[in-house]
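Mods, move this if it's the wrong board.
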Amino acid sequence: MLDIQAIRQQFPALKQSVNQYPLVYLDSAATTQKPQSVIDCVQRYYSEQNANVHRGSHSLTAAATSEFESARETVADFIGAQSSKEIIWTRGATEAANLIAQTFARSTLQAGDEILVSELEHHANIVPWQIVAQQTGAKVIKVPMTTECQFDFSAFQSLLSTKTKIVALAHITNVTGTRQPIEQVIDRAHQLGAVVVVDGAQGIVHQDVNVTQLDADFYFFSGHKIFAPAGIGVLYGKLALLQAMPPWHGGGKMVERVSFEQTTFSDLPGKFEAGTPNVAGALALAKAINWYRQWPLDEVEQHINHLVRATYLGIKDLPDIKVLGYQPHASTLTFIIDGVHHQDIATLLDQQGIAVRAGHHCAHPLMDALGVVGTVRISFAIYNTEQDVERCINAIEKAVDML
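Not the wrong board. Structure tokens:
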């Protein structure tokens, strides 16, 4: 049984007040708060271990390099990669998507090739494909969603063809929390020789991920969604694909030998990690992963799903409220109030100490499909409580009365 109060005590940010109310943080799909152990990890690195990695011969750099590569092993084990060489450090999910687009995709796509992209995607899994399509003459094809905000697998199968070279979709979507059928998509796409790119920014927190069993070609995520700092992310790619891909950024560390006549590049993973990396971020990500592994994920998700359902039941019948694409097994809930701007709702909630997200959530195509310009999104994590739900519902009720 999860001891949520004990877990909450590990998060210093949750102990503060906002606008004279105790903070209720319901924006974890945007970024999670950080446990003290992760904060301490960053502080310890800069206080005691600060040195560059893979350079120099002194004790500090040797220790930093050892922990840096150990963190890579932790990530590889966490997601079921076959080798730590398949783990590339990035600044986050967005950089990882762009790396794939500008290395693998740009070097393999030709005019007339097609990239199938789910309509439910975050901009980070749409715009990089549009850019590379313009560069190569390929086409980005939308895979529509159903009226229930689900991936339309039937439409996907009708769009899939020998022209399809890449399929891009999120494991879990960031607005409605829809769990997309990545297993079936991967299987079907591979039958026609297409490569599948999975945005795991939300999925990494809420799903057991084994990239080898999934047979995912690429899977990427950001550390800050899983209790680590901002500025660190992970790109997983199958070893053969990564080996065949050209480098993206040029500079130190990603080279074996440089002359004005020729440069030879490092082996994996160094080939894609030019310059000084975010060492503290990598160490803190490993710390965050090990921290999160303390609890059975099924228990964590049952807790979160319970909070989402309780929130849904508490607001669905309020006047003029419309919940969009409700998913009973999600970590998010998104809604609008007829005739009221989403930002006004979020502001009124903030005045009562409730932190939620308002806007288009970097998902314009999804907003267009829903026929709205923006929504209010409530999102939960392991540290949220039933009291948080009660306060959120009460705050929404007051907002409805005022508006």
